[in-house]
Specification:
about 850 residues; alpha+beta; six-stranded antiparallel sheet; five-stranded antiparallel sheet; 41 helices; DUF1963
């Protein structure tokens, strides 16, 4: 049995650790005894003999996997096979032996041990070939995660400097041992997470090591993946001056998240130093990477002067018109918009009344100018307690942050709620009331957000339409800010979704109204249509609004979709914009838009007219039997009522379904997990038919509910089913025939999947939502009857959809001709779930 170094010391054993290292190495390698390579490998590790044995290990002999993966629980048979050849061995003793090796072995022994671990590991070409030094560092940090004196000693011994000694002893791959060490500690992919190795860099010794070798760190870091570069910059923030050159270089990185981290690191330096470091990008960085460095320069004393000097250096003929325009825009914002007076006196900052929040604000900037809100958990919820977000801005200012206004405003597009929704994605008027004074004092920031940058800093987070966001805020201004009137007028005369909120911001501004009148004679047909629509909305005599949906072009949308409210067509406009940004040709986007269908859906805030009721009571005509599966006179399986739709409350044209104009449709389903086809269906009760309350005897176990009664109680608590107009595009995977007509269908569906305000629990009509790629339930319903007497797949439509159970979705489908004939007895109910 292995004896730890601590136990050995307590027992008074000698200080010479070579015998202990020898025994520990052999204990670590004991699983190789079953493959007869044990002795050559042990001799190589201990004395450097026979390096060719590494090639044999790469052939994965029996036992190699037990060495490479010591934290796996191996079968009793495999452990017994080792103990038969290495008496007294156990996986636990092998782990203790590793700690002894890592605690006392010399650098050359450790290097060879790392090479053995690397050769024995199960690697695939797709994941790359990490160096043996990385594998060793991973195992060391894993091993000392255990409690005990040996583990603590190992942790103290292994810092980057010692790892560099091991790298030098083993001639690790890299231009220098330091380069090899940094590469090993910072590399990460899907199979080799770096968080444990980063522990070696996060200590005081690690931070000092990074500062000492800042040049080599910069050389390594620029070749890393995006997420690794962000991690490096967070480490650099501990010693920003040492890594100023690297942070300055990455401030114009291709990745927006890297740029943010780089600027956070630079913010720990004084203003003149930041200006000196960032001005290098003004004439060299591509325009798509300049926005973040320019924003920082705009907030620093001397920053705008540096931008003006860069413009002057460009001479009479600028080589890059886009860059020149970008730089001049920043100068205009600082020199003109920032100096512009607010449209009305801005009220004094309203301090938060919550004492805990006030204390949090005081502590927020305690780390100085480089601090940020990332450590402030729940900031999005705390913002709702602030009557004026300038209180947060003032806390940043008190901490000495030069970009306090911008930092506060950036929370709208960088911070997410608990539901992973960006704060500014769907800003409410109440939210905007808290934000407008900040932007009234900084019209330059409002102008920046009008550019429409999506604020997408992380791939797994939804984007923010900042134009819509800032227009919502500008609507709270007492009057349109004069400095922004020309830009707002241009938006108001456009053809996209932003024209409507821009008009609300402008109100009846005389200059804007005059511009709209002049635009009636514009050469562009779209501008003329927009002007006519605007003036007609203002009640201008003689102004005739164009047909609804004009902004999409003639013949693009179906008549039913064109008639939808502008707030609904908003989603199609954003979809088209983002699809074009993805590179889908305009003709292909328009053909896909032609597939759009109207629907009714649940709004995110639960608003909308009541079109029915959820849950009981079950009201049926006396002569209509309770819906059930009937096996005999006294043997039936009754269905549960989920919703009752009031067809008279559904406006004509709200869906593309040929629904009866009045009466009620009752939707039933026994929400069971066993099958995709659920017991259930629908019953149509014509208007004026006498009904009575029907008692039911439900005998099934609902998915995710204790009983049918519990499900009904929850439905009844919701009560009224309120739905608003919506629009849908195909989201389920399409077949080869559809792909031939729409070769960009997958991209278009991906873009459409992001057009969500998190509503839509209930839906009437339209397209079925895709769930885990199961496919479209409407055409699939054609195959639910074995005798083949059902209508074909193309005849089926979605009647209703309910995202009503965790990780599940229910569909009611029906053939269109049966819907026209009022044959609701042929409704099919399906549920897809991924519990």
């Amino acid at each position: 049995m292995h004896i730890s170094e601590a136990e050995m010391a307590d027992s008074g054993a000698g200080a010479d650790s070579s015998p202990r290292v020898t025994a520990a190495v052999r204990d670590c390698l004991a699983p190789l005894r079953v493959s007869e390579v044990f002795e050559p490998v042990a001799e190589h590790v201990l004395r450097g003999t026979g390096p060719e044995v590494l090639a044999a290990l790469r052939e994965r002999p029996t036992g190699a996997d037990m060495i490479a993966k010591p934290d796996v629980t191996w079968s009793a048979a495999r452990v017994r096979a080792v103990t038969d050849l290495h008496p007294g061995w156990s996986p636990q003793d092998a782990e203790a032996a590793r700690l002894t090796v890592y605690r006392t072995a010399q650098a050359d022994v450790l290097a060879r041990f790392g090479q053995v671990l690397h050769a024995a590991g199960d690697r695939t070409p797709a994941s790359g070939e990490p160096s043996w030094l990385l594998v060793l560092a991973d195992d060391v940090t894993r091993a000392y995660g255990a409690a005990g004196a040996d583990a603590e000693d190992v942790q103290r011994r292994w810092d980057p400097r010692f790892l560099t000694e091991v790298a030098r002893a083993g001639d690790a791959p890299g231009r220098t041992p330091v380069h090899a060490t940094l590469s090993a500690l910072l590399y990460a992919d899907s199979r080799h997470w770096a968080h444990r190795r980063h522990q070696l860099l996060e200590s005081d010794a690690g931070i000092a090591f990074l500062a000492r070798y800042a040049d080599e760190l910069a050389d390594v870091a620029t070749g890393l993946a995006d997420h690794n570069r962000r991690s490096v910059l967070r480490l650099c923030a501990r010693r920003p001056e040492a890594h100023a050159a690297l942070a300055a270089e990455l401030a114009a990185d291709a990745d927006a998240g890297v740029r943010t981290e780089a600027l956070d690191t630079l913010s720990r330096l004084d203003g003149p130093r930041q200006v000196a470091l960032l001005r290098q990008h003004l004439r060299t960085a591509s325009p798509d990477r300049l926005s973040d460095p320019l924003a920082r320069l705009a907030d620093l004393d001397g920053g705008v002067v540096a931008i003006e000097e860069a413009l002057a250096e460009g001479g009479d003929g600028p080589e890059d018109p886009e860059r020149e325009q970008l730089l001049r825009r920043v100068v205009y914002r600082v020199r003109v918009l920032r100096a512009a007076e607010a449209v009305v006196p801005v009220p004094p900052v309203a301090a938060p009344q919550d004492a805990d929040l006030a204390e949090e604000l005081r502590a927020l900037g305690a780390d100085g100018p480089g601090g940020d809100d990332r450590s402030w958990h729940g900031v999005e919820g705390r913002l709702s307690l602030m009557p004026d977000v300038r209180a947060l801005r003032d806390a940043y200012r008190a901490a000495g942050m030069p970009d306090a206004d911008r930092r506060a405003a950036a929370l709208l597009v960088t911070r997410t709620t608990h539901a992973r929704r960006k704060i500014g994605a769907f800003l409410t008027p109440e939210d905007a009331e808290r934000w407008w004074p900040l932007f009234a004092e900084r019209l330059d920031l409002a102008d920046e957000y009008l550019d429409g940058g999506d604020g997408k800093r992380h791939p797994d987070q939804s984007a923010v339409d900042t134009t819509t966001m800032i227009l919502t805020i500008l609507e709270r201004f007492p009057a349109a800010p004069e400095a922004l009137v020309p830009r707002l007028t241009s938006l108001a005369l456009g053809a996209n979704r932003h024209r409507l909120p821009a008009r609300r911001v402008l109100g009846d501004h005389p200059g804007a109204r005059a511009a709209a009148t002049a635009a009636l004679s514009d050469a562009d047909a779209g501008t003329r249509s927009s002007a006519a629509e605007w003036l007609a909305g203002l009640g201008e005599p003689g102004a005739v609004a164009p047909e609804p949906g004009w902004e999409f072009g003639a013949g693009v949308l179906s008549p039913a979709v064109r008639a939808l409210p502008a707030s609904t067509l908003w989603w199609l406009d954003r979809f088209r914009e983002q699809a074009l940004d993805k590179g889908v040709p305009a003709d292909d986007v328009d053909r896909w838009l032609g597939l759009a269908r109207p629907k009714l859906r649940t709004a995110r805030d639960g608003s909308g007219p009541a079109v029915g009721r959820l849950g009981g009571p079950l009201m049926l005509p006396p002569d209509v039997p309770t819906p059930a599966t009937v096996w005999g006179p006294d043997n039936s399986y009754e269905y549960q009522l989920i919703a009752t739709l009031d067809l008279a409350a559904i406006p004509p044209g709200a869906t593309d379904l040929p629904l009866p104009p009045d009466g009620h449709v009752l939707l039933f389903a026994n929400v069971e997990l066993d099958e995709e086809l659920l017991p259930g269906g629908a019953v149509y009760v014509p208007a004026g038919t006498p009904v009575e309350e029907r008692e039911v005897s439900l005998d099934y176990e609902p998915y995710e509910y204790d009983s049918p009664e519990a499900l009904d109680d929850e439905l009844r608590r919701t009560g009224d089913l309120r739905l608003t107009p919506g629009v849908g595009l195909p989201s389920c995977p399409v077949g080869d025939e559809a792909l031939a007509l729409h070769p960009h269908a997958e991209t278009l569906q991906e873009v459409w999947s992001e057009q969500s305000d998190e509503g839509g629990e209930w839906q009437i009509g339209g397209y079925a939502a895709d769930f885990d790629g199961y496919g479209d339930p409407a055409p699939a319903s054609a195959y639910s009857e074995e005798d083949g007497q059902w209508p074909g797949p193309g005849d089926w439509v979605l009647l209703a959809q309910w995202v009503g159970v965790p990780m599940g979705i229910l569909y009611w489908t029906i053939p269109r001709q049966d819907l026209e004939a009022r044959r609701f007895d042929r409704v099919v109910v399906q549920m897809y779930a991924n519990p």
